[in-house]
């Protein structure tokens, strides 16, 4: 839990009370996450990402297990080929 999140701490400096409310937690708890003393739950990570308009991502907040919870965000190393690809 010692991963700091400087972008979250920077966002907190100017975040309004309404923006904080959208994260579904408190400013103090967000600060604890920012300093790496607490971790964001899966649901909270999504709320933070949405509330910060993507400035702070769920990948950043949960670097060790984000792919397990959001496999759709894992880049596909094998993009789908089109039907005509490779044809001349």
Describe this structure in words.
With 88 residues, this protein is mostly helical. It has one domain (6-70): 434 Repressor (Amino-terminal Domain). The chain has 6 helices and no strands. The protein has helices spanning 6-14, 17-22, 27-34, 42-51, 58-61, 66-69. α1 packs antiparallel against α3. The mean pLDDT is 90.
Quick structural summary:
The protein is mainly α. Helix 1 runs antiparallel to helix 3.
Question: Which features does this protein show?
Answer:
434 Repressor (Amino-terminal Domain), 88 residues, mainly alpha
* Uncertain segments: none
Number of helices: 6
Rg, Å, rounded? 17 Å
Question: CA-to-CA gap between the ends?
Answer: 54 Å
Content-based structural category: mainly alpha
Count of spatially separate domains? 1
CATH overall fold name: 434 Repressor (Amino-terminal Domain)
Quickly name the level 1 CATH class: Mainly Alpha
Based on CA inertia axes, which overall geometry fits? elongated
Strand percent estimate? under 5%
| Major sheet summary line | none
Give, in order, the helices and strands. Answer: HHHHHH
Overall mean pLDDT stands at 90
How many strand elements? 0
Helix content: 40-55%
Oligomerization state of this entry?
A: single chain
The CATH architecture classification is: Orthogonal Bundle
Set out the fold topology.
Blueprint: H1 6-14, H2 17-22, H3 27-34, H4 42-51, H5 58-61, H6 66-69
């Amino acid at each position: 839990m010692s991963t700091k999140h400087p972008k979250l701490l920077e966002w907190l400096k100017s975040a309004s009370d309404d923006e904080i409310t959208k994260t579904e937690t408190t400013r103090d708890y967000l600060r604890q996450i920012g300093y790496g003393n607490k971790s964001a739950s899966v649901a909270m990570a999504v709320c933070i990402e949405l509330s910060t308009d993507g400035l702070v991502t769920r990948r950043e907040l949960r670097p060790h297990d984000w792919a397990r919870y959001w496999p759709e965000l894992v880049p596909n190393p094998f993009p789908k080929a089109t039907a005509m690809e490779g044809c001349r």
